[in-house]
Amino acid sequence: MSCEHARRSILLMLYGEIDGRERLKTETHLAGCGACRDALAGERRLFAMLQTGPAAEPTDDLIDICRDRLARALDAEAPPPPAPWTARCMEVWRQARLSPAYGVAMLAVGFLAGTLTLRASASGPVPTAAATEGSGTAPTIARTGAGPDNLPVNSVRSLEPSAQDGEVLVGYDTLQRGSLEGTADDPAIRALLVTTLRDSLNSGLRLEALDALRSHADQADVRQALLDALRLDENASARLKALDALAARAPEDSQVRGAIVDAMQKDTNPGVRVRAIDTLARGRDPRLLPVMERLSRDDPDAYVRMRSGDFLDAMYASNRQ
Amino acid sequence: MQPPDEATLISQAQAGDRAAFETLVRMHDRSVLRLALRFLRTEDEARDIYQECFLKAYRSLGQFRGEASFRTWLLRIVTTLCLDHLRRRAGRPDAESLQQEAREKGAALLDPADEHPDRDPERVLQRREIRRRIATALAGLGARERVVFELRHYEGMRLRPIAELLGTTEDTVKNSLFRAHQHMRSALGDLGGVAPGLMRSPGDPAPVEV
């Protein structure tokens, strides 16, 4: 094999794009050629540097903006045929799920309906309100329950046309707004933070909750929420923070270690996979060798392959000593 | 109730069911937007390409026959749009200022590693500078080399699917990848101990000092 051929094979080898025979020929050439070994080392350094390259993970906000714009463009693209009032109502509700702007509008409608109802009512819970649209007259609000004064409507839960033509049943939830101040040592605060981490659709809030819970992974509820976030959160930064919060527990907690091994192999974000490798590498556990071997050979990301290769080099070097 | 599978959604969308199309959008739009951001670097342009891609898919749904997966079909559309966009951008009289803007915005895009609470501020700055240099080097690649390099190196896509995506052969894609690597080695040779002299193969162009 010529040096020129070897240099091309080195690059493909680092990308895992050559077959076993070609790899063997390249390794044989490398064993006898110092210049090509230097080239391989230089290429590895370049790969390491390129790992710092520009990230391109879209934020949730950007996704929302794009979806909203697309929904409106699709409206213009193929205008829906005229529909009866109930169908239009359901269409508005359907779009509310897609578009933040419609969502806010629907929330405002629900809030207004709830406030009007509640102002006209005696105290007590208000599970539902029915709105009737009369022909040529302003809508009237019919109370079906009573609630405490000034209780804000939190969200519209459901919107269903009723059997009677022109009527719609608006189901909404009410919530008393409150605030609580303290550290995550306080079980009440911690419970709120865990709920935020588990349930909030706002990734910014989840990241804040992760920061606040970072040093409380020894609490069972926090530990479980962090494990779930590492496995399931769609935001890579959140998974990374969950991993960091759990890292200190890895040596003595086999479930945490298992979750990090899973992340190392299956996380879609190479940054998370690399962090998982680095976390587990500290333990120098020889049981990781087969997994690291596989990653160093097959992972689609070059830096993941390099970091797992570094682990293997360190393990084999320490075995030789 | 089980959500409908992708094939059912495609059939429903082809029959004019917009909700089914929107479900398909939600299943794949993160990948589409990530690719557009990766190639173009600016959110404004990526947003426009996202929209163009899905409108084009919506109008062409009837032509989708399922030879490739729906995801591959969408990625092919977005890659083609980005390639055209990069070529148009390079041909514009204000290309240099546009590229400069893309480089700066690209270097500022979210990197989870910088969010690490223990990250040393000096190292964060160093990483940003390296990122800026890499963005500059990437902007200096030809459109096709750029697309191949980003898909292989940063998106982890194998060479064969890249070739299918671009409608070309695997060998052509390999050559584009080699050329891209030569360029990156030359452009970044002075950073972090990458020695371009050592990396030069016989016949390679002399390294360019940056």
What does the model show?
The complex is a heterodimer of chains A (321) and B (210). In chain A, strands 2-1-4-3 form a 4-stranded antiparallel sheet. In chain A, strand 1 (128-132) and strand 2 form a beta hairpin. With 321 residues, chain A is of the alpha+beta class. The two termini of chain A are 33 Å apart. Chain A contains 14 helices and 4 strands. The relative contact order of chain A is 0.07. Chain A is flat. By secondary structure, chain B is mainly alpha-helical. Chain B contains 10 helices and no strands. Chain B has helices at residues 6-14, 18-40, 43-59, 70-91, 95-108, 121-139, 143-154, 159-166, 170-188, 196-199. The longest helix of chain B is centred in the N-terminal third of the chain and has 23 residues, at 18-40. Chain B is globular and about 55 Å long. At the A-B interface, helix 1, helix 3, helix 4, helix 10 and helix 12 of A face helix 2, helix 3, helix 6, helix 7 and helix 9 of B.
How many DSSP E strands of chain B? 0
Poorly predicted parts of chain B: 194-210
Shape of chain B: globular
Radius of gyration based on Cα positions of chain B: 20 Å
Counting helices, strands and paired strands, the structural category of chain A is alpha+beta
Task: Determine the strand fraction of chain B and express it as a percent band.
Answer: under 5%
- How many DSSP helices of chain B? 10
Principal-axis shape of chain A: flat
Biggest sheet layout of chain B: none
Give the chain pair forming the largest contact, with residue counts. Answer: A-B, 57 and 63 residues
Low-confidence stretches of chain A: 79-107, 113-151
Percent of residues in helices of chain A comes to 55-70%
End-to-end C-alpha gap of chain A: 33 Å
Topology, please?
The complex is a heterodimer of chains A (321) and B (210).
Chain A: H1 3-14, H2 20-32, H3 34-50, H4 60-77, H5 85-98, H6 100-119, E1 128-132, E2 140-143, E3 153-161, E4 167-174, H7 187-199, H8 203-213, H9 220-232, H10 236-247, H11 254-266, H12 270-281, H13 289-298, H14 302-320
Antiparallel strand pairs in A: 1-2, 1-4, 3-4
Helix pairs in contact in A: 1-2, 1-3, 2-3, 5-6, 7-8, 7-9, 8-10, 9-10, 10-12, 11-12, 12-14, 13-14
Chain B: H1 6-14, H2 18-40, H3 43-59, H4 70-91, H5 95-108, H6 121-139, H7 143-154, H8 159-166, H9 170-188, H10 196-199
